[in-house]
Specification:
Length: 171
């Protein structure tokens, strides 16, 4: 069973994936569509809420025209070791997207704190990953990592910035 997890715990996934224009008329309620279907879904207008699914290597310029039209952007990660989606999340937030940002794919619990710090609101796990790392493990992992090597993640200074400040304070 797949798992959708946010900072507060498990979430219900309200969005139905729709991969083809022909299937738009079959879906009711909130839908999640790829870039190839977003224009038709937006023009169709029958769904109360609209989500956009993109790959983690999608250019921001391809997504920007839809920032005001969608409530959810789901960024797909091909593997836990491919961090391009984290950078995309930061760029989407800087571009003004205030809706729900979802990371999806084979992420691991150790990445949860960083994923949240980059601007994601939730992570949708594959069936295999949710079986391997249940919700309790994700909730524990959320509070384990406090320091990062990259600047701009969360509210704390990076490890390098902390070291430079300590060196400066020491004299």
């Amino acid at each position: 069973m797949s798992l959708l997890v946010g900072a507060e715990g498990e979430r219900q996934d309200l969005y139905t994936p729709v991969g083809d224009v022909a299937d738009l008329s079959l879906a009711t309620g909130p839908i999640l569509v790829p870039l190839t279907v977003i224009d038709a879904a937006r023009d169709d207008g029958r769904n109360e809420r609209l989500g956009l699914s993109v790959a983690n290597d999608t250019q921001l310029s391809a997504i920007e025209p839809y920032l005001g039209s969608v409530d959810l952007i789901a960024v797909s990660f091909p593997s836990f070791s491919d961090g391009r989606g984290l950078s995309l999340a930061k760029r989407l937030r800087r571009a003004g997207f205030s809706g729900t940002l979802r990371a999806s794919g084979p992420l691991i619990a150790d990445q949860f704190a960083e994923t949240l710090a980059c601007g994601f609101d939730e992570v949708k796990l594959t069936d295999a990953m949710s079986a391997r790392q249940p919700l309790a493990q994700w909730m524990r992992a959320k509070d384990i990592v406090h320091d990062t090597y990259q600047s701009g993640y969360g509210d704390r200074p990076s490890i390098l910035q902390q070291r430079l400040a300590a060196r400066k304070a020491a004299g």
